[in-house]
Each structure stands twice: as structure tokens, then as C-alpha cells.
Design goal:
By secondary structure, the protein is α/β, with parallel strands linked by helices. It is 29% helix and 15% strand. It has a single domain, classed as Purple Acid Phosphatase, chain A, domain 2, CATH 3.60.21.10. The strands form two sheets. Strands 3-2-1-9-10 form a five-stranded mixed β-sheet. A five-stranded mixed β-sheet has the order 4-5-6-8-7, with no helix packed on it. Strand 7 and strand 8 form a beta hairpin. The two termini are 26 Å apart.
Length: 273
């Protein structure tokens, strides 16, 4: 196993190994949907104010901040501001889209697929023109123009993202986990990309997994072993956060009726993300 393949530390900066009692808000895949992010954060702030939020409250973002939507640059600006200024503790996880974006910056020829994976929208959000015809794209030249517009603070933020976080009751990871494998032995490929073998319904384990990455509707998935918070924001116009207090689970959403979880997504029909 190479250094890159080894799981990076689970804890975010300045977080205790196990958070004290408090509410955890876990935000699903944003995908460049800046307006929805602002809307959802306003609802979370209102919830914090209603419950007299404490320093123990934790705001977790589950990854996939970039690509597909029109405003990835603005989303990253907002997340960096939140990291620096939010009164709640914060933790930011890496999604598969952030991983592929970083791979493209390192080697645009090998990882040119990022452009068709939603990366073209991310590049355009930084004011860089991307030809509509893929045959007209020089990957290295486009990467260089993109890198010239990409703030160092954005790259630093992306390279510091965590792969997972674990509390007494929950495991947080972008895509999910390999069932039956201890967290110390999980590999980044599964934490960022897994579907088959994880999504299927099974009895509750010791800890439920809170994840994004897979969506089938504008409602979250609520199952015995997992809580799926990706509601396809870039396509459905609905961004959702799980609200966790102890083992109690609720949802805050930009939709008018966010409280009901969806049926189990079929891994064979789940939207690509």
C-alpha cells in the first residue's frame, strides 16, 4: 500500500477524539450549488439558535463540494470562511470529486476524465473558458490556465480534507465503508467511491454510517445501517443535512417537507455522483 492509499487521520483539526454531547449537523453533497448552501446554512443557524447551541455542536460536510453545479469557486470560498469563522466546531470530508480534481491538477493527461465528470463546470466557475468540443481541449494547457486562477487557499483546503470521522454512535464518510472491515483498515477508494456491498439493506450495526455520494430522489435515505444525505442538489434543487443528537436522527433541508427519509436506493439505479 502506498502512502497515498493509506487512510489519513479521521479527526479534524482541534476536535477531541470523541465529541461531547451536542448536536451534529452533517451536510450532503453540494456540487457547486452555492445558493442552496447559503439557504441550508441559514436553516441550520436558525436551528442552533432555537436549541441554544453549545460549543459541543459540530458541523460536518460530507464532501463533493465541486463539479456539476455552476458555482464551485464560491462554494469553496464559503467553506473556507466557515472553517475560519463559524461558532460551531467544523469538519470537512473529502469526496470523490475533490479527489479527482486534485488528481487532474497533478496530471491533467492521465486524469482528463475529470472534465467530463463535472470538472468543466468547476473550471468555468473560476472564469476560465472550456471549449465545448472535447477535441479542442489541450488538457495540460487548460490545467495551466485553471491553476493560474485557482487560489492557493483553495488547493490547501482540498488537500487537508479528511477521509472519515467516527463518534460513539456514527461513522461519517463520503461514500460509505466496506462492511465488516475495521475503520483502521478502510482504504480511501472505498470511503470515496463505494456503492455495491454497502448500500444494500442490512441489520443495524453498532454504528450507523452517515454518507453522501448516492442519491435517487430529493429526500434522504434512512435505513438501519446507514443515513444517506445526498439529495442531488445540483439537479433536484434540494440540499439536505442530517441532524443528529445522541442516536436521534432528523433532517434539515431546503425542501419544504424535509423530515421524511426515502426508501432504500437501488444500487443499480442510483444516480452517478
Amino acid at each position: 500500500m502506498t502512502d497515498r492509499d493509506r487512510p489519513i487521520p479521521a479527526r479534524g483539526r482541534d476536535l477531541p477524539p470523541e465529541p461531547a454531547d451536542g448536536v451534529v449537523y452533517a451536510v450532503g453533497d453540494i456540487h457547486g450549488s452555492y445558493g442552496l448552501l447559503v439557504d441550508l446554512l441559514g436553516r441550520i443557524v436558525a436551528d442552533v439558535n432555537r436549541t441554544a447551541g453549545r460549543r459541543d455542536d459540530l458541523l460536518i460536510f460530507l464532501g463533493d463540494y465541486v463539479d456539476r453545479g455552476p458555482a464551485s469557486s464560491a462554494v469553496l470560498n464559503a467553506l473556507i470562511w466557515i472553517e475560519r469563522n463559524a461558532p460551531l466546531r467544523t469538519l470537512f470530508l473529502m469526496g470523490n470529486h475533490e479527489r479527482v480534481m486534485l488528481d487532474y491538477l497533478d496530471d491533467p493527461v492521465v486524469h482528463e476524465r475529470w472534465l467530463a465528470f463535472g470538472g468543466d463546470a468547476t473550471i468555468r466557475s473560476y472564469g476560465v473558458d472550456v471549449p465545448e468540443d472535447p477535441a479542442e481541449i489541450d488538457p495540460a494547457e487548460l490545467r495551466d490556465r485553471f491553476a493560474d486562477r485557482l487560489p492557493a487557499s483553495h488547493v490547501d483546503f482540498l488537500r487537508r480534507l479528511q477521509l472519515f470521522h467516527e463518534t460513539d454512535d456514527f461513522i461519517f464518510a463520503h461514500a460509505g465503508i466496506e462492511p465488516g472491515v475495521p475503520m483502521a483498515r478502510q482504504v480511501p477508494e472505498d470511503l470515496l467511491w463505494i456503492r455495491q456491498g454497502f448500500l444494500e439493506e442490512r441489520p443495524a450495526g453498532r454504528k450507523r454510517v452517515v454518507h453522501g455520494h448516492t442519491w435517487t430522489s430529493n429526500k434522504p435515505a434512512l435505513l438501519a445501517h446507514r443515513i444517506g444525505v445526498d439529495t442531488g442538489a445540483y439537479r433536484t434543487g434540494v440540499l439536505t443535512a442530517a441532524r443528529l443528537h445522541g442516536t436521534d436522527v432528523g433532517f434539515i433541508s431546503t425542501a419544504e417537507q424535509p423530515e421524511q427519509g426515502s426508501e432504500m436506493p437501488n444500487p443499480n439505479t442510483a444516480a452517478a455522483d
